[in-house]
Structures are given as C-alpha cells and as structure tokens.
Amino acid sequence: MIILGVEATAHTFGVGIVTSEGKVLSNVKDSYSSPDKGMIPDEIAKHHKDVAEEILSKALKEAGLTWKNVDLIAYSAGPGLDPALWEGYHKAKGWAEKQGKKLVPVNHCCAHLSIGKIWNKLEDPIYLYVSGVNTQLIFSEAGKYHVMGETLDIGLGNMLDKFGRVLGLGFPAGAKMEEMANFGNYVELPYVVKGMDVSFSGILTRVQQLYERGQTSKEDLCFSIQETCFAMLAEVIERAMAHTGKKELLLVGGVGANKRLCEMLDIMCQERGAKFFKVPLDLAGDQGAMIAWEGFLRKDEEKEMTVNPHWRVDEV
Ligand code: AMP
Ligand code: MG
After folding, report:
1. Tens of pLDDT along 81-95?
2. Residues around the ion ligand 2 (C-beta < 5 A)
3. Are the C-beta atoms of 132 and 254 separated by less than 8 Å?
4. pTM for this entry
5. Best exposed site among 2, 52, 71, 245 by fewest CB in 10 Å?
C-alpha cells in the first residue's frame, strides 16, 4: 500500500509518500520563513497555497510514482494554525476528490510520535515532544496517548523564536541560537518546574529584561536559556521514566534537532540504564511522511472531521 501525506499545521507545507511497511519514498517540503517577522497566519496560508502543487509534483516524481500508485491520502487535521490547516485540508480534499482516493484526517502530534517509533523500531517508549507550539511528555497505554507533563504556557520552540526575534535573528531562530550558545557562559535564570509541568514565559521575560539592560551578551543568554530549559525537561522526564519504569526515551519535534538537548537527555538515560532515541533531521520537524505513516495506522478509524486547531494528542 502507498500512502501520501499532506502537512500544513504551521509554517511548513509538505507532501510525503510512504509504504505500508513504513519506508519513506519521498518527503518534500517548503517552509515559510521571514527575516524580520514571526509567523503571520495569513501569509503562511498564502505560502502554502502558492507552493502546494509544486511540492506535490516533486514528491510524486522523487518517489517515482504517479497518482495511480497512491492508495490513500492523509492530511494533518490539527492541532495548528487555523488558516494553515484549512489550506492543507482543502488541498488534500481537492486531490482526494479529483483522484478518487480515501481521505484520512490525522493528528499532527501523533504523527510525530509514530514516525519516530517506526524509524527507531521501538516497542514502548516514553516520548518528549518539543516543537514550536508543543512541549509535552507523553506515554502510550491501552492504545491511547497520555500527557504526563507539559508546558503551562508557551512551547519551548515558540519561546526560542520569540527571544530570537528580540535578538534580530529572524524566524525560526532555534538553530541560530544553538550556534550562538556555543560561545556563551552561564547566567542564572528562573528554573520553573511545577510537578511534572514546566513553564517558559517567566524565563522569556527575564532574558528579555537582561538583554534590554545590555549587560549580558547574546551568547550568554542563548547558552543559559538552553542549559536552564533543557535541564528542566531532563528533570521531569527522568521522574516520568522512574515512575513508569520505561526504558526508552524518544525525542521528537523540531527542537529535537538541538545537539545539546540530545546530549543532556542521552546522559540522563545512560545514568539510569535506559536508552535515548531521536529521529533523523529530515523526520524531526514537520513534514508529510509522518502524516502519511500515521494515516496508514489510522486508516480504518472512521472520523468525520475537517480541521481542529486545538486537537490534543490525548483526545485522539
Ligand atoms: P516544529 O514545530 O516541530 O517544526 O519545530 C520548529 C521549532 O524548532 C522552531 O521553534 C525552531 O526554532 C525550533 N528549532 C529548530 N532547530 C532547532 C535547534 N537546533 N535548536 C533549538 N530549536 C530548534
Ligand atoms: Mg510539529
């Protein structure tokens, strides 16, 4: 079976094609970026509309397939930005109707988890999902996902991007901040863990204040944000692993590209006799292959839906 997945929850429009064995045949995407602004929802929707047909053609071509070979179309129905989601839905629905294919709505968060699980061939990991909007600690039980801990305000990626804008780094800023952090030293920041949850907005306010006062370098602030926020995450995950007895940790989402975060989680896992896993860069951020794979897993669930911007992983 061949499944085509359409991703359009945030700044990325992607089309990926996978087989029912989880082999990725192609995964083409294009992301909205801006030198001086954050994500402007209407601009993002326009971006997706402009690139969709070209991304689709490239994905089919790269996979060496035509529409005839595709059995199923999956699209990300949420969570995400409303205008982006509708753009993705209309594209996927239009293609499904024109080509006479079944259309499967997919939860974007579940897709991040399931592509990481199949790629690493894992049995039953605990998941750390850190993207732009999401920061969640998730495990699966009896076929359902449960959120054990999460951010009480903004996602870590959004926090990095917001501060990145203040620093004039453009959007998205996480990768540039990681480079700058290599040249920084530690300054103390609020460390905000509440039970199994974390909070980043107070840290954002603090680094903005420090930056405006002009006595702390950009590099020191980037380094200290990383050290503080990643340590907070490592603390709650370690507690979750101790509590659930799980021996595998899987990191997914765009912030998972960060080498220092991976290093800290790997050390934590080694120290407790557990194993740390991540996904390769091309499957870590938003893309269509994960939507296709999740669509295959959910193909027999009948769901009547269009889009749901607030669809949580534990509501699936
Ligand atoms: P996603 O929403 O899963 O596509 O992830 C996008 C987020 O990942 C954005 O907020 C980026 O700033 C962030 N990001 C990407 N690369 C890195 C990195 N190397 N370090 C930290 N954050 C990153
Ligand atoms: Mg994502």
Report:
1. 999 999 999 999 999
2. 131, 286
3. yes
4. 0.91
5. 245
